[in-house]
Amino acid sequence: MSLFETISEDIKAAMKARDKVRLETLRNIKKVFIEAKTAPGANDTLEDAAALKILQKLAKQGKETAATYTAANRQDLANEELAQVQVIEEYLPKPLSEAEIEQAVKEIIAQTGASTMKDMGRVMGMASKQLAGKADGSTISKIVRQLLS
Predict the structure, then answer these.
(1) 4-42 per-position pLDDT tens digit
(2) For residue 146, is it left (φ>0), alpha (ψ between -120 and 50) or beta?
(3) How do the residues of the chain divide into helix, strand and coil, expressed in percent and rounded to 5?
């Protein structure tokens, strides 16, 4: 079952459970998925990899919005936003630890033969593809810098 179908099924379950936060969040996710499916050039399909990128983006936006609300002293709104982020994160793969990311980056460096900061772009390209959805780009970048310098 694709991620799109899973979300659709979970909307029904949230309706039956009368879980307002979950239902609202899942409906928003489905809306964004449908927009991506009907975008020009999408051929009315949504691959799971693209769906995961969308979920990551939504989670990141939610965290940023919650931080903004907290800074504005609106903890009630921040809590609502974080509750939605929690629902979104249920559909994301478990993020890798820094040690796991470092191990993967070391393997990529060995594969590419990278040795200096000049090779960072090549390493980052491969690392971003291999670790997509499992690690944050800024964390990958930080580790690549440490290992190449």
Answers:
(1) 889 999 999 999 999 999 999 999 999 998 988 888 877
(2) alpha
(3) 75, 0, 25
Q: What is the pLDDT of residues 47-67, one digit of tens each?
A: 877 888 888 889 989 999 999
Distance (Å, whole) CA 109 – CA 127:
9
Both tokens of residue 98?
């820094």
Distances (CA, A) of 76 to 18, 22, 58, 70, 80: 21, 17, 20, 9, 7
> How does pLDDT run across 61-88, given as a tens digit for each residue?
999 999 999 999 999 999 999 999 999 9
Classified as helix, coil or strand, 1 is coil
Closest to 95 (Cα-Cα) out of 67, 59, 135, 62: 135
Eight-state DSSP code of residue 12: H
Q: Which two tokens stand for residue 40?
A: 């020009």
Supply 31's token pair: 């809306």
pTM for this entry: 0.72
Angstrom distance (rounded) from CA 70 to CA 78? 6
Q: How far is it, in rounded angstroms, from Cα 53 to Cα 92?
A: 9
